[in-house]
Amino acid sequence: MSDDKRRLEADRSRRQFLAYLVAGGATVPLAACTEASELSGAADEGSHNPLLWAVAWQQTAAEFGALCHQAYNVARMRLDLAIGNRRSGDKRLAVITDMDNTIIEATNYWGYLINEGYEFFDDAIWDEWIPKNLIQAVPGSRDFLMYCDENDVEIFYVSNRDQGDRTYEYALAQLELIDFPQADEAHVTVIRETSNKMAIKERVSASNDLVLMLGDNLNDYKRDYYVTDVDERYALMERDRDEYGRDFILLPNPTDGHWVRAIFGDSEPAPTDENRRILKEAATRSAWDGT
């Protein structure tokens, strides 16, 4: 280890030790106390919130936007192929799309959670946030859906939300706010009781030629992915790998979804020390030991 690295390690250890002393009520010199207090204050401001990296990426990374555009570019190429093969008398082409984090961005909600000190998804705040309509379209989503509409492709919006008796009203209002096409009762379905969208897939497939589905969660595509085992879910993904970009277009979402359920056994885990431990364990399934 170089001298500079030793100094950095020693300084970090000293600062951590001082912070522990202050937290424990020990008497230390004023300068050291101030230094440790500043460290503690930074932590109190949420600097260790596990949501920070994911939400910062969504809100600032050009790569996030590029991945969204890439997804919709692939969807358009797939749609063009289907349009080119369409013949008179064929069933009308259709796409099925999820709403949240697929065509509607919810980063504003996650930013609020961080500012308020929340570390996990909070259902009550989500229900309060929904009718505020502080939303915007996911990059590329509206252009793609407008292209569908212009080419006589039917669009079916499906969302599993539950904000009580006004759930459907809120969902429809958000689609209308961003001016998504075909946002009407014939094309918008809100499922309050379950996250299973397979009945909608079967219904649309019977009446239309279903070209593709769009979502931010593999469970949007197949119910098979609604499992509570990380390795099993990953194996299912590998089984279906040839279908991505052809039958299902996946949008990036690092904050929530059924990948969370596979880790915790619950899509909305409580902010407990045990769940923080489980999250760290998941993040270090593969970790260099430093040697």
TrEMBL record:
Transmembrane segments: none annotated. Keywords: Signal. This is Acid phosphatase. It comes from marine metagenome. Pfam families: Acid_phosphat_B. The keyword Transport does not apply.
